[in-house]
Structure formats: C-alpha cells, structure tokens
C-alpha cells in the first residue's frame, strides 16, 4: 500500500520504465562482442523475433507437402545468411543435427507407412517417403530460423525485452538470467564432483573407475549443490530489492519501425514462397 | 498485472522461482550431456534411432513432478517445464526450436494434473506414476501430430514405449530423487520441508 505513492511520484507522466533509461535510442551493445552483433537482424527487437520464430514454426505444421517446405527452407537459408550474417560454414555445420534427424524421419516413415510401393516388391511406400521428406524439411526450416534467432540475440537482451514488451515478470526474467550464469559454471561444477569421486574411487588398470552408478551419484551431487546455491542466489536477488515494484531498466531494448518492416518482410516472403511452390 | 504492491498469496516467493530455474538448468545440462550420448546411438541405429528416443522420453518429464513435490503450489509443474525448455532452447541451443516450449507446456500440464486432483496433498507412488503416465500420454498426441505418426504401422509401439518410459523415468524416478533430496536436508526451507516437519517430527539436518 505505501509503495504506491513513491511510484506515482517518480513517474509523473505515467511513462513506462523503458523511456527513462539512458540508452533508448543508441544501438544495442552487449557485453559479449559477437561479430554478428552489428547485423541487421541483431538490431531488431528480440521479443518480435521470438514471436516470429514461434509463429513461423507453428505455421510449418500446416504443410505435409514437400514443395512449399522446400521453398521455405531455401528462402529461410538465404534470409538468415543475409540478415544475421551467419558465416556459411557455421550455417552448414549447424544443419548437421537436423539432417541426421531428418534421415531418421524419412527412413522410418518410408518403411512403416502403408501405401503404393515405390518399386514393386520393395517395402518402401511413395506416401511414406513423401511424408518423411516433408517432416524432415519442417525440421530444417525451424532449425535454420532458430539458428538465425540464437546467433543474433544475446540472452540478456531477450530477457530485458520480454520484461519491457511481453510483460514477463522481472522476478522470472532475472531468475532465468541468474540461471544462465549458473549454466556457464555447470561444467566446472561437474568436473569438481568428478575429481572428488576420482580421489576416492577404486582403481582399474591404474585409472579410477567411472560407471553408470558413479554418473548418477555425480548428477545427484550436482543437483544438491545447485539447490543450495539457488537459495543463496534468491537471497542475493532479494537483498538487492528484486520483487519490489516499480523497476527501471538499465539499457532498455527498443522496439521500432524496422521491427514492423521485419514482420511484413517475413509474412510477404512466406506467402510468396508457398504460393509459388504450390502453383508450380 | 495489478499495480498494488500488496502480495497476493498465490504469488510465488523468489526462492521458489529461482529453485525452478535451477532445476531447469541442472536438468538442461544433464539432458544436454544425455543428448550428446544419444545422438551417437541414433546415428549408430540408423532408421531405428527415431524409435530409440522413446525409451528416454520420460526423462524429459522429470522436472515437473520434482518441482511440484518440493514447492506444492498450483501451476508449478507447467512453469518449471517451460522454464527448463527456455533454458534448453535459448541457452543450450536445442535444435527442436520454439516448438519445445509448446511441448513443455503440454507435458507440464499432464504431469501436474494428478497432483492437482489431490490438491497437492498426496505424494505417494501412485500419484507419481499417474503423473508420468499423463505427462507422456498428453504430449504423445502433440508429438504424433507434429511428426505425422498417425497412419504409421508402429503407432501403438511408439505409444507403449513412451507410456512405460513416462511412468518409470518421468514418474517413479522423480519420487526416488525427491525422497533422496529430502533426506539430505537441502529442501528443509521449502514447502516439502515444512510439511515434513509437521508430519514426521524433526529432521536431522546435515551440516553445511
């Protein structure tokens, strides 16, 4: 009750916190100086990009025809390479997991789906092959878009933008960012637990044994230490006033006219690719 | 979003939110390690690699029942699953992409339903098993739609594998983990610790 009055006093014009920060108009600069940080896509609003990514991924579910999906895949590859400035080699290497997954999808569907056989006597059906290829292409389209999103969006900007523009509670946003920090420390923690285990482990041919049970024990130790540190983090965040409203945002992430252009470009490109592929 | 600063009783304390994030991070990290190992298996098994994944499906359900059992508040299972998927997609770069968030929300809802029906008061083996069963069953419908499983000869095999995996890895294993965590004393400050203190008398807390 008492905290309502100071809020009204500090925000006389009723403006949101996003307009009070110092860097509202300057381009976004983050701690990690990634080479892609200056690309056109990297300067777009993360919330808008995330919304486009989710909408585009859901839209691929509407197709079970490989032709429009192939057109969308080609378009997405070109668009991501051009707008996010992802190096060709990185883009190709990032495709490998999707291709592997796609090969499995094609094989399982071609073999396990009833229909007219591709070759007389062979267990491969035309329908199964078509559906399998379409599903694999779906994964590839979503994959390319995800690569474009992740390579052009620093996590910190995404979280700040979600607080500003998507009404995500700062309590969740800052908790997730704290979790991000912990994630970076996770391999080191794992190594510490493993080292402690290795000291006590019985030797096999001069080396400490590390079986499945040891892996489970290490994972459990990781869980226990992480729960303890989560209590400490919560205490630290609360002692810095998190959870008290209102909050101002340091280095706010802007949303502008170019973000509208991005949405229009995606919708137009998507429609053009689908119409062209189906009419051909 | 109400503008008053008065705390609504349904609002989660920051400690519980950070715990859910931390569970998501730890399991995200462990899943990442697991996925690396599984990828090799999938390549080695060729066409059957797609099927082999179902054996591990229950593991992806673990976060929800664990978070519910510790925090004991409505929607915690759904929120915990979604946070874990955010960690997987945004920070670990999961190839599944944003559709993982949708799957996570469905999984969380399925896992949470049995606990919600007992009004977050019963945490026996049966409730955990049902949680794993429903979590796996609900998300199966979504996966089947997404990967076009309907019309395949092996639909029933897929469903059976996922349900069994859900019960074992996504339900019963969660109870084992929660009970062991409770035994270490790290959960004393959470709802499970307070409930336990009322039910079973004082717990011997290990020195930190």
TrEMBL record, chain A:
Taxonomic lineage of the native organism? Bacteria, Bacillati, Actinomycetota, Actinomycetes, Micrococcales
- Which Pfam families did the record assign? CbiQ
One CC-aspect GO term:
plasma membrane
Membrane association type: Multi-pass membrane protein
Domain of life per record:
Bacteria
* Protein name per Swiss-Prot or TrEMBL: Energy-coupling factor transporter transmembrane protein EcfT
Compartments where found: Membrane
**Keyword Transmembrane helix attached:** yes
Task: Show the InterPro entries listed in the entry.
Answer: ABC/ECF_trnsptr_transmembrane (IPR003339), ECF_transporter_component (IPR051611)
Give the UniProt keywords, A-Z: Cell membrane, Membrane, Transmembrane, Transmembrane helix
Sorted alphabetically, which CDD domains does this protein's record hold? EcfT
The ranges of region (Disordered) come to: 1-33
Q: Which organism is it from?
A: Promicromonospora sukumoe
Q: Which PANTHER family match?
A: SLL0384 PROTEIN
Q: Where are the transmembrane segments?
A: 47-64, 70-86, 91-111, 131-150, 260-279
Transmembrane helix among keywords:
yes
Q: Where is the composition biased (Gly residues)?
A: 13-24
Where is it mostly found?
membrane
Automatic annotation (TrEMBL), chain B:
Q: Which UniProt keywords apply?
A: Membrane, Transmembrane, Transmembrane helix
Task: Report the superkingdom from the record.
Answer: Bacteria
* Transmembrane residue ranges: 12-34, 54-71, 78-105, 125-145, 157-178
Source organism of the structure: Promicromonospora sukumoe
Protein name in the entry: Energy-coupling factor transport system substrate-specific component
Q: Does the keyword Cell membrane apply?
A: no
Which InterPro entries does the UniProt entry name for this protein?
A: ABC_thiamin-permease_prd (IPR017195)
């Amino acid at each position: 009750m008492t905290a309502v009055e100071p809020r009204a006093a500090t925000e006389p014009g009723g403006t949101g916190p996003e307009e009070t920060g110092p860097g509202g108009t300057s381009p976004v600069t983050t701690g990690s100086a990634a080479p892609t940080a200056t690309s056109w896509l990297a300067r777009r609003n993360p919330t808008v990009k995330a919304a486009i990514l989710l909408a585009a991924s859901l839209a691929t579910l509407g197709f079970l025809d490989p032709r429009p999906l192939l057109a969308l895949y080609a378009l997405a590859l070109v668009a991501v390479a051009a707008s996010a400035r992802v190096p060709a080699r990185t883009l190709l290497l990032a495709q490998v997991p999707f291709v592997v997954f796609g090969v499995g999808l094609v094989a399982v569907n071609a073999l396990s789906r009833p229909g007219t056989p591709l070759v007389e006597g062979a267990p491969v059906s035309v329908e199964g092959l078509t559906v399998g290829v379409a599903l694999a292409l779906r994964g590839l389209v979503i994959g390319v878009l995800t690569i474009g999103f992740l390579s052009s969006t620093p996590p910190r900007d995404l979280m700040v933008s979600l607080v500003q523009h998507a009404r995500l509670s700062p309590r969740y946003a800052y908790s997730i960012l704290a979790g991000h920090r912990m994630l970076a420390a996770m391999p080191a923690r794992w190594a510490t637990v493993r080292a402690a285990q290795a000291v006590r482990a019985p030797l096999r041919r001069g080396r400490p044994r590390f079986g499945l049970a040891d892996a489970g024990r290490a994972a459990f130790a990781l869980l226990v230490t992480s729960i303890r540190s989560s209590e400490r983090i919560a205490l630290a965040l609360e002692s810095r006033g998190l959870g008290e409203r209102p909050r101002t945002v340091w280095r706010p992430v802007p949303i502008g006219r170019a973000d509208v252009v991005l949405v229009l470009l995606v919708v137009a490109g998507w429609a053009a690719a689908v119409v062209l592929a189906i009419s051909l | 979003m109400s503008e008053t600063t008065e705390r609504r009783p349904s609002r989660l304390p920051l400690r519980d939110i950070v715990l859910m994030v931390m569970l998501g991070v730890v399991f995200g990290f462990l899943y990442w390690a697991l996925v690396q190992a599984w990828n090799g298996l999938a390549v080695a098994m060729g066409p059957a690699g797609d099927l082999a994944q179902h054996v591990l499906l229950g593991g992806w359900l673990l976060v929800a029942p664990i978070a519910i059992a510790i925090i004991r508040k409505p929607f915690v299972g759904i929120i915990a699953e979604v946070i874990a998927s955010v960690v997987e997609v945004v920070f670990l770069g999961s190839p599944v992409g944003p559709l993982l968030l949708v799957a996570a929300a469905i999984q969380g809802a399925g896992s949470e339903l049995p606990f919600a029906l007992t009004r977050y008061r019963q945490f026996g083996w049966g409730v955990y098993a049902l949680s794993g069963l429903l979590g796996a069953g609900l998300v199966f419908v979504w996966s089947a739609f997404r990967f076009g499983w309907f019309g395949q000869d092996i639909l029933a095999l897929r469903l059976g594998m996922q349900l069994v995996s859900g019960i074992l890895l996504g339900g019963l294993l969660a109870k084992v983990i929660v009970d062991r965590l409770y035994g270490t004393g790290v959960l004393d400050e959470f709802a499970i610790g307070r409930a336990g203190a009322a039910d079973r008398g004082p717990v011997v807390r290990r020195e930190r």
